[in-house]
Design a protein that fits this description.
This protein is mainly α. The chain contains 5 helices and no strands. Pfam families: Anthrone_oxy (PF08592).
């Protein structure tokens, strides 16, 4: 694969992830907010199971790996293109991958272990309060970071022709 093709694939993968987080922030989460506590937790448990699929993994980890490889291939401290790619790599590693691993996945694991069928309405309400606001906050950070990643890659890709 040529370096230009790698950067194009990296940009596409990044765009898929940015779109994924964008859709969550500006549609899925808005719809989920309207559910009652039990429906909300049940739906989040279901979504968390379904999101772990090959297409998501290819996009999520593929973006990470291709960003790192692109940063190495385009290494040139005198090139603005390199800094755009490197910044997008850092944005994704910290703001998407890191936040997912350190913040969102532990919250997802916590909600997965919660047995809704045996819980009182009070404990269901408490679990939602523990989960929802932090999860939304960190997801919004991932949305912003994934957009920054994508935008920098689009600009870097445009720089290839100049």
């Amino acid at each position: 694969m040529k370096t230009q093709e790698l950067l194009a694939v990296t940009t596409i993968l990044s765009g898929l992830m940015s779109g994924f987080f964008f859709a969550y922030t500006f549609s899925v989460n808005l719809g989920l907010a309207k559910l009652n506590n039990k429906e909300y937790l049940t739906t989040m448990q279901s979504i968390n199971k379904e999101v772990l699929n090959p297409i998501f993994y290819i996009s999520f980890f593929g973006t990470l790996f291709s960003l790192v490889i692109s940063s190495i291939i385009y290494f040139d401290i005198h090139s603005p293109k390199f800094f755009l790619i490197f910044f997008s790599c850092i944005s994704y590693i910290i703001g998407v991958f890191g936040i997912t691993a350190i913040r969102n996945v532990p919250l997802n694991n916590q909600i997965e272990l919660f047995d809704i069928s045996k819980a009182s309405e009070e404990s269901v309400q408490k679990m939602r309060a523990i989960f929802e606001k932090p999860w939304l906050f960190w997801n919004n950070i991932r949305t912003l970071a994934s957009f920054v990643t994508f935008a920098c890659l689009v600009i870097a890709l445009a720089c290839l022709n100049h």
